[in-house]
Design goal:
The chain has helices at 2-43, 48-52, 54-74, 79-94, 97-104, 109-133, 141-162, 165-191, 198-224. It is mainly alpha-helical and 228 residues long. The protein has one domain (2-224). The longest helix has 42 residues, at 2-43. 29% of the residues are buried.
Amino acid sequence: MQTNYQVANTQALPASAHKVLRNTYMMLGLTMIPTVIGAFIGMTMNFSWMAGSPILSTLIMLGVMFGLFFAISANRNNSFGVVLLLALTFFLGVMLGPILQVALNLRNGGQIVGLAAGGTGLIFLTLAGIGASTKRDFSFMGNFLLVGLVLLIIASLANMFFQVPAASLAISAVAVLLFSGFILFDVNRIVRGGETNYVMATLALYMNIYNLFVNLLHLLMALMGERD
């Protein structure tokens, strides 16, 4: 009887994990709606106060973000967690306003934004497909990605003071690689039962996609942007 139970439990785990992944993908698609709405609103707003006080504005943004992260985590097992997640994606959509305003002021800005969005989608679909279908366990990447994220945050904060364009591009290039790695790691972790809550799984994947898009857009603007 014990052997039969173990076999049944082993068979149930992948089915449960794939259910979490399916719900995560559905929720991820839903989060794009407030993000797009927020982005359109952000493109009409005046963000000159952020340019005048970049450090203060960054601290405010991080404070709101981490406050929502904490609230989402605390409510991850109830419907209010979904509401908070959608609120976060709306806020982050609005925060896309400054970079989208700069991008769309370029002569080929629409093309660049489209390429960044398409590139982000292609990277996500490719790596998520690998992470979900492969038998390989990518948990070994966890510590490396975490250290990389900490170093990336430190480098980004330091460059706020020094404002070195080459360093900014290097940081964005590293960020593209890092968050691509996180997509592979997080999807693989969901499939292997390492994350059983679809709200938290959606939050992780959404932040990966968001940061991947922003940094890819920054790189494309610098490399392809046609200014008048």
